[in-house]
Amino acid sequence: NGAITFELDGVLVEASPGESIWAVAARLGQTLPHLCHTEEPGYRADGNCRACVVEIDGERTLAASCRRLPEAGMSVKTLSERSVKARAMVMELLLADQPPRAEALDPDASFWRWADAQGIADSRFPARGTPPPPDLSHPAMRVNLDACIQCNLCVRACSEVQVNDVIAMAGRGADSHIAFDFDDPMGDSRCVGCGECVRVCPTGALLPSAEQAEAEREKRGKIIHAEGEFNASERLAQAAKVIATEPGAMTLRYLQTLTEIAGEKNSTILFPIPIDLMNLFQPTPSAGHDGEPRSD
Fold first, then answer.
1. Would you tell me how many other CB atoms lie within 10 Å of the CB of residue 190?
2. Which of 92, 172, 190, 220 has the maximum number of C-beta atoms within 10 A of its C-beta?
3. Cβ distance 14 to 2 under 8 Å?
4. Which H or E run contains 92?
5. Other CB atoms closer than 10 Å to residue 100's CB: what's the count?
6. Rounded CA gap, 109 and 86, in Å?
7. CA torsion 206→168→164→94, rounded to 10°?
8. Count of CB atoms within 10 A of residue 296's CB?
9. Per-residue pLDDT reduced to its tens digit, 82-129
10. Among 156, 154, 225, which Cα is nearest to 195's?
11. What is the pTM of this model?
C-alpha cells in the first residue's frame, strides 16, 4: 500500500505517501502547535512560523513537521527537551511583538490558545518599534498589523485559495509586512471582501469590522434567505419531517449539514438555500385540528 514505517516518539507508526509528520502525529492524537499551517482544503503547508518543529535523529537542525515528510526508518522526537523548548521559544519571540492580551482585539485567537497550551504568558524579549496603526478603510474588515506574525496564511488564502491576488508580502527584513495591491489601504485595494483571509488569520491581525461583527452576532443561530429570517431549529425540524418521505441524496445531505451546523455548533448559516428547498423553509401555515399544516 506504499505505507512508510518510521518511529514517532519511540513508537513505530505508518504514514501514507505524501502525509507529513504533523499529519501523522495529529491522526494519532497529538496535535503539534501550528500557526502558519491549516488542514483546511486548498492550503499547502508553508513551514515559516516554525511553531511545529520536531527533532529528527541524525539531523543537525529541527524540522518543520507540517512540511517534512517521514522516511522509512526515520526516528522523530516531538517531545524531546530540545524540540519542546524550541517551540516554546518560537511562541515567546512571536509574543514579544503582540499587543498585550488585555488589549488584543481577538484574545481568543489560535495564537493565544497555543501560547496558553505551552504556558507562555509573557516574553523576555523587547517589542519591535512603534506598531503600525490600524487600517479601518474597508467597510467589512479591519487590519491590525500590530498583531501580524507574517505566517502568510492570508496570502495563500487570497492568492491560492480564492485566487484574488490582492494580498502579498512587501518590504525587506524588519520592514517586511502584509500589503494589499501596491501597498494601498485595504479599502482602496481590489479586495472583494470574501473574508477568507479573516477566517484563517491566527492572531486577529485581520478581523471583521465592528459593524460586521455586530451583524454576525445578531444573525447567530438563524438562516438567512430572500424571504427574511427564521429560527433554524424550528425550520430544520419541519424540513426533516417533510424530506423524510422522499430523501433525495443531495437534499438529505444538505439537511444533515444544516442540522449539524445549527444544532451542534450553533453557528450562523450564511449560504443561500437552493430554490427547490425554499418551499420547505417558508413560515408554517396555520395548523388544522390535528396540529398538522393545512393542505389547502
1. 10
2. 92
3. no
4. helix 81-96
5. 10
6. 22
7. -30
8. 5
9. 999 999 999 999 999 999 998 888 999 999 999 999 999 999 999 888
10. 154
11. 0.70
